[in-house]
Structure formats: C-alpha cells, structure tokens
Design brief:
The protein contains 3 helices and 18 strands. The protein is of the alpha+beta class.
Amino acid sequence: MTNLETEDITVIRFTVPSSDDPSNERSPTTASSAIFQLRLGLCIAFLLIAIGLYLILIHPMATDNVPFGSGIENKLDITLNTEKEKENEYDIAYGYLNDTRDRHQIPLFNLPLIYKLEFKFFLPWKSSINFGDQNYLMIGKSQMIFTVAKTNKRVQVHTLDLHIGEVRVEDDIGRVVPVEEINRDSPHVLDIYTTNMLVENMNYTLHVSFTGKVSRQKRVGIFSSQYTARGEERHLISTHCQTQHARSVFPCIDNPEAKARFQVKVIHPYGTSAVSNGMESNITTEGDWTTTFFESSPVMSTYLFALAVSDYAFLETMRNGVRLRVYVPSTNVEDASLAMDNLPRILDFYEDYFQMSCPIDKLGKYKLFIYFEIAIFDRKSET
C-alpha cells in the first residue's frame, strides 16, 4: 500500500453579493463628494500649470529691456526689500544711460516741478552793437525744483554743449545738501552724487550756473538767424527744442514725460524785446540792458520751451480773452495782416473742434527766417 503525503490546502472563498443585497448600493452623497473632489483637483492642477507657464514664458518677456524709472507710471511700482536689491535696481536703471540704443533718458527717480531760468544774451543785433569776444554768448542760471519719487543719492540732468559752473543742491528749507561727486562721463548728462540720501516725497532744488554759445550754424537748440531791415543786417535769437534740444539751452530732465512749469527771466540788449511761453509780467531797463520777466508757463514738456530775442514789431488783437500776436520785422508789418486776420479764426476753429476754451492767455506767431517768408507774409505787390 503506497503512503501518500498530505498537504494543507487553504481555500479562499469569494462571496459575490446578490443584486438584491441592499449593502451593494453606493450612497448618492458619497458619489457626489467624489465628483467634487475630482473637479477640485483638476482646477488646482490647471491653475498651477497656468501660473508656471506665465512665470516661464510671459513674465520675462514683459520685464526684459524696460529701464526702471523710465516713466512716471512705474516710479513706485517696485518694492525693494533689501539694500542689495535697491543697489541692483539703481544700477540697472542708470545703466541704460550708456546704452547706445537708448535715447539718454534719465530714470525718473526725481521728478521736476518748476524750472526757474535766468538768461543773459550778448546779441549784436545790429551793426552798431558789438560785445567783442562775448558776441553770441549766453550766461544762464537755473533752479530745478524737484520731488524725490524714490530715495536715492543721484541727481541727473541733461546738458549738451554747455559749460557748467557752480552746482548746488538744497532741501526744501534752504539747507545745502553736500555733494560728493560731479560726473560728466556721458556727453548728455550731468551726474551729481550727494553725500546723503535724498528722502522720498521731499522737495529739493538743484542750482546750476552755466554758459554757452548761441549757434550760428545749426537751427536746433538755441541759435541765431539774420535778416535785412532797411538795408542793414539784423540778428535775432530763437529756440527750437524738439525733440531733445532743450538740454543745449539749459540743464533739465529732457524726457517728454517729465513735465514742469517754467518761470523765465531774460536780460537782453536795449532796443530788443523778448518772448517766451508765459505772459510778460514786468519789463525794466537799466543802461544798455532790458530785463523781461515772464509769468509761470503751463505744465509742459521741455521740448515745448520757447524763447526769442529780437527787434521785431508785432500786430495784436484779442479773442475770447486770449491775446493774439504776430511778430515780424518792423519793415514787414503791413505784409503780416493776412496772418493776423486768420489767427482769431484758427483759435475759434480749435475751440469749437475740441469743445473747450484755450487753456493759455496768449498765442503768438513768430516769423523766423529759417522758414520761407511766403508762409506768413502777404505782399499785395507780388503774385
């Protein structure tokens, strides 16, 4: 008889519940909860993916090559938590001054409010007037009152073809702020480093004395033009600051978005008159010099600054409370009647078109001899 080995056998029994078993039915509440959790998980996953794509693809494109402080709108947008972060932001912003692709726009850590300008012009406006070596010399003083948009230690202004003399920074109560260094590495920028930090939201004044030559070749910045009156050669001075030539007239933040008011004083030879953006407030004469003071201009960009000195005569009328003038050489007053007749009509047209009154108290048309005379003169004897 054969002996058989026996093994322990474990039997696994599967029990399939009957369809009639009530325990086989899933609770409706449990199913709804599972669906909700699934949807929530998908939403969170989608949100994380979207944030990741923005940080990787879109955000760098939006922030590359944008100089911090290049516009007023971003002057307070970035919060810097550490001194190192502040230094990095300043370095990036000022670094754009040396980029040849940039237009030498100064970072707007300091925002101009008012320019107080004084000019003295040695203009040999007729043959009997001669200042020798000082002919066509411009001597000026500027005060730029500015507010600090972001704490910093640098005051920058544009200058071009100007010899800079005394430079001084004062706070809003007249105390001198020590200057550590004055840098002219950039041909367009006067870079002033102060010893102490300039405090955010505080006002300061930058004083600069300067000299320059009125150009007789180019017709931008400040220049001289000539004409003939009664057989005699005459000379005048005028400005053309568009687009970036105000910096060759006086130290300024020559960015179009850096708007300010202008208060002007002009000392010019006796026998000439001066015009600028503001209305004349006072005119005095002492010896061979006349001084003309102008009221504050509207808030405007530096490229709109205008100044002229000449012996021109003018025609004048009033329209809707606005003074209208046409300046021309005294020998051409009668020929300017057409321009004078059309100025009121032009004012009426624009007030009607824009549905608003003229925001300034004077308008002028100044005849410069860099343009064709036919543009302003109406000579009855010519066709």
